């Protein structure tokens, strides 16, 4: 990787100009050469071990949990929800036929957000924080799909929340402990957590709006599988490098499986938790997020032996939202394309 810092600065210059007070932590690896850097348009760049909310990047880790558990024999990808969620909580036979793979590829037919989200006390500063386990249970009991899965792939934050819940039930552990014990601790992801401890708290960067206004932290008591994780660029890169084949075989095999295209989703395909695009004729797995005052992007390509992570503490602008743009997504994909022949 020649002049990785120059490459990063060149690609991120438009973002840093548009969000001059945003702190960005970036990591790139190419053929085993790693570069990690903190960047900021104005002011002191962040420490590279800064902690960010991952937002919907969490979904890739939830899908990884599924793939690792399948590799261990704890679940099957084609296993229906009815085997994991009790009849008293989900009685509809069509809903119970949804498989874990369909949740991970967004082909379950579940809506993007819980239909009864508005039944929770409204709090725009933490929109999922009041969505309780009781309300989630009400949704499951009252969910009656019109037709059986699979459906055309359509993004479902709720579906990833259901996946996290189902895996937790199978192992009789809450999501945070399950993620810690099955995925994070064995892989050495010591800064990746669903709950920010007192030890980690000093490294957590505050989330902001696009204009730099602080945003209170978002919480996900009933749907942690969709957005609850926090991490550093170093930990996320360690996760991606395992997906490139550097790590214990049981984990590399599970993370390889996730990247295989399984269903069509408009301009790209989906693997388990990943979007998969063709870039210069090669498969590139990627995911982006804008949630709770944070922006994130991560991507890897086995063909290029390369990966990129970009995490920032400023959310999107209304202008970007109206144009359907996720900050850092284009820059992240542009960086990945540099590594492909």
TrEMBL record:
Residues annotated as domain Beta-lactamase-related: 23-312
InterPro entries xref list: Beta-lactam-related, Beta-lactam/transpept-like, Beta-lactamase-like_AB/R
Pfam families: Beta-lactamase
Domain of life: Bacteria
Annotated Gene3D superfamilies: DD-peptidase/beta-lactamase superfamily (3.40.710.10)
Family named by the database record: Belongs to the beta-lactamase family.
PANTHER family, A to Z: BETA-LACTAMASE-LIKE 1-RELATED, PENICILLIN-BINDING PROTEIN
Name the UniProt record assigns to this protein: Beta-lactamase-related domain-containing protein
